[in-house]
């Protein structure tokens, strides 16, 4: 019967587990102890029998234990021998000194055996150490030899690899050099070809110019032969003024030469152009004389010049005309001719209708990598600093009126000339097409690849190398706080007289001293503009696409000023004095095409602004000629001379004129005490006289008799000096004189342009405030805009509303229907405050 009975399944499982662990531990104990026992028996009994010198087994996993056991046994033997020796010698400290005595011989033998064993073991240890040292030394030597061999092999491999790489690099370099030499040879051949073509083109141009000159000489000779007897022959021009390298190099400044040209018709432009250069210290310039008369004029004024003698014309070339395009082609041929004559010189091309305000050469030198720099018709600057514009953001047409060409640009100019062989190609369009082909964006400095990547270009900053719109209208240089380099009289109207007047308004024109004085003096108009008119013309209500009714604020402002100017024109014609125009404030810009938000598309500036006179008045045909539009003086009266609004601020005005000024004030209606009625000469009150309003021509002349010696008469409220204006008469006591005046002022105004409709222009009118017939025979009973030369812009609904207001006003004037107005206060307010529009 078992001692313990296990009934629970859990207990049985736990007991089985315990037994399993016990068996496992026992097995592991037998396994772990069996090998030491076996090797110990083998090393103790078997191995020494075969090898008496055996001490350890190098391949025995338990050799370290056996070696330790042997060392301990040897130590015991040694200690035993020492103890016995002490006993033999009678060591008193030995506890065994009293042991049974041994014989001296035995003791000596034992000691000798011990010494021999110790010596033998020491010798064996020494031998083993020596052998181990030799083995270690041999191993170290072998290892060092192996390392040396590996290093030698690595060095040999590196040398081989380096040699291979050097050979490959040499091969690649040779291939690259061969390819570069081939490309260079091709480029040289191409460049030589292009130079040859450019030279050939230049020669052709020179031959053509010489042929033109020959024709001109023949024509002059024929004209000379046709002259009556006794006429002096033309003065021959000296050969020193023929274009040559010597002449060009004589006038080079800092490796630059600025070039322009003109015929005798533009002599005053050349004089002003040169005067502005001299003020800026620019001496490196040349003016091409397009005819020999012009050359003599330039030489007599000591202006650097050369003889072109193109034979094109001695008259106004007229923008866009056939002569204008001929001059453009001559200009481009000249560029190439200059580059060929002096290839080390940078050529700056300038139209004659420019005014240089700074020396541009240092600015150009900031961009030595640029082959061509050009001005632009861009109206919205992409930079506000003195840097090149960003291209293609500044993507408007390049303007060839101001350009810089470095020697590398010869191929471009030759291609330009080639393109112009087609008769209907405009020189500026050709320039843009060639330059922009294959162009890319500008870099950080503003220089960009052009001409299919063959050269570098840059767009000059439009706020400083300014077109007429940017300079005279937007005045971007003032807005940005920059000093401009040049103003170019583009985007202007009224032809050549319009260009002159714009330059004069900004005091950029060189006039003779006689311009600043006049035998009969000047009339200056002081125009008071109501603040409301200026505030309403701020541009806030202008839309992208304007309608006629959205121009009311502009015409309200301009028409108010026209009343003063009309009175000033009559005074100038009456007295023979020169009229000093007041500044004209506008809200709308002027353009040949549709305005956007009242401006030329792309331009942004503050409103209202002082607009150039050519925006409102027809200078070229209405003011400038003695016979406006061909009408003789007996139909339009004497010519009215005028000056620009900045005339009195010009430093060239002599003190004898500026300090001889008198105020002429026109009294308001109802305050007539002390105001001269024109029956007698006016008496001076301090430095002024006071005149009654509503005087006719005879009364005005009488009142001004006593002050006629004053050079400048400052009129305030000149609009009320005359009687109420009527086309039929009233201002001039001579009815014929009045009709001549009416005829003249009909042709003095220009157009506002343009709305998004056809026709899109509207004429300004000096008689807008009264019933009248305009220059086209259109009848106006009251002011309203008419489009073009015949059209009426009023839609039916607006016309009906105007008719209704007029009808009600007539009824009220007759004393009836007052209750209607009383019942409609808003209509009453509109009627009472109704403007003429």
Structure notes:
This protein has 837 residues and is α/β, with parallel strands linked by helices. It is 46% helix and 11% strand. The protein has 23 helices and 23 strands. The strands form six sheets. An eight-stranded mixed beta sheet has the order 3-2-1-4-7-6-9-8, sandwiched between helices. The chain has a six-stranded parallel beta sheet with strand order 16-13-12-19-17-18, covered by helices on one side. The chain has a three-stranded mixed beta sheet with strand order 5-11-10. β22 and β23 (779-780) form a beta hairpin. α3 (104-226) packs across α9 and α9 (410-419) packs across α10 (427-436). The longest helix is centred in the N-terminal third of the chain and has 123 residues, at 104-226. The protein is elongated and about 175 Å long. The protein starts with 8 loop residues before the first helix and ends in a 5-residue tail after the last helix.
List keywords for this structure.
single chain; 837 residues; alpha/beta; disordered C terminus
Shape: elongated
Helix content: 40-55%
Unreliable spans: 56-62, 84-102, 219-235, 792-837
Radius of gyration: 56 Å
Output mean pLDDT: 81
How many angstroms does the end-to-end distance come to?
A: 140 Å
Percentage beta strand: 5-15%
Strand order of the largest sheet: 3-2-1-4-7-6-9-8
Main sheet makeup = 8 strands, mixed
Number of strands: 23
Question: What does the oligomeric state look like here?
Answer: single chain
Secondary-structure-derived class:
alpha/beta
Give me the number of helical elements: 23
